[in-house]
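Ticket reopened. Same input as before:
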Amino acid sequence: MKILADAHIPYLRGIAEQFGEVEYLPGNQFTKEAIGDKDALIVRTVTHFGKDILEGSSVKLICSATIGFDHIDTRYCDATGIAWRTAPGCNANSVEQYVTASLLYMADKYGFRLEEKSIGIIGVGNVGSKVETACRKLGMHVLLNDPPREEREVGEKPGVKGKTAFVDLDTIKKEADIITLHTPLTKTGRHKTYHLADEYFFDALDKKPFIINSCRGSVVDNPAMKKALKTGKLAGAVIDCWENEPDIDRELLEMADIATPHIAGYSADGKWTATKMSLDNLNEFFELGIHPIQFIQLPQPNNPVIDLREIEPAHQLAYSVWQTYNPMMETVNLKKNPDKFYWFRSHYPLRREYGAYKLKNADSSVVPVLKQLGFNV
Ligand SMILES: NC(=O)c1ccc[n+]([C@@H]2O[C@H](COP(=O)([O-])OP(=O)(O)OC[C@H]3O[C@@H](n4cnc5c(N)ncnc54)[C@H](O)[C@@H]3O)[C@@H](O)[C@H]2O)c1
Ligand SMILES: O=C(O)[C@H](O)[C@H](O)COP(=O)(O)O
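Engineering reply: fixed in the latest deploy. New output:
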């Protein structure tokens, strides 16, 4: 079997070869010619897969080592018999780590307590649910908005209420101090999310909230967000996903409190899971029966033990989370070198999730929340 794989999918080299002959190319260098005689593609979000690049090829399966799939023209693939698979939930914990680290940073920068704030989560799937759990552990008041889920869970059986209490978008606009977006990018359908946060959305905000976009750039109308930041409708912004990546809006970049190059899901744990799920998909689709698939073990973090002895109890939570992931260094780097957006994504340092760390000398007041987040305390 002939496979073309993105050269920047971690933990794939030397492993994918169990499945066939593998060629590696950076995702932004995939061409019709390179794809032509391949049976399967293992890909990322940086390449668009539509008629222009797939027509006339031998491709039978596209495995995306990602959650999102707006880079795949699924209608074209379905119509032409090209199967496609994704890795649902693979890096959801990583995005939660990103959002938690960012919330703690914004609270520190603007001098507020998270326990006193309401957060509106728009899109409560794999990622949004993890963010919801983390925010509840941080003591925040949580508002959930997910009309497709609400319809499925509440509306299907008349008279039967779903377990989750959802609110409408207007409630989020009126009541949330922080809004975080976790929807897919969709351009059609009743619940399409393209420019869900547009000028009208921002104009209707009552509490001058902060916004976090770590789902897809175009779920937010970026010029409208800039205007909202300028006119004070928004108090600040955390932006991981941008319109027109990698050529992002430089003025918006300057305005963002946290600005990162679409790496919220880039923990090693998330990348490893994505690779594993992609190979499982390949194995299953072509009925290869390879068992067990040999995988690389994840490396330990550089600082696997975090000693909190010298840290004030009030700062131990933020300190611990930032030891695992601190978005500020990436923000400084991206603001200095916006042209290197793609490079930063292709040369991402090792980042592990909470479970890879042991905490020593944690104050009893923060032990429960640290444990609940997933640290070994
Ligand atoms: N920045 C990153 O690195 C990164 C990492 C992972 C995922 N993502 C993005 O985050 C998105 C969400 O990931 P997920 O794993 O939670 O996906 P998911 O499919 O599990 O959940 C998405 C949720 O959004 C809801 N939704 C759809 N349209 C909506 C609308 N108009 N309003 C409110 N809710 C709506 C769906 O019903 C679903 O529950 C992905 O599609 C991807 O684009 C980004
Ligand atoms: O959809 C996803 O899973 C994320 O956006 C993912 O982190 C993007 O990863 P990439 O395409 O850069 O590998």
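The pocket of 4-phospho-D-erythronate (ligand 2) is lined by residues 44-46, 66-68, 91, 265-266, 345 (CB under 6 Å). The chain has a mean pLDDT of 96. Please confirm and we'll close it.
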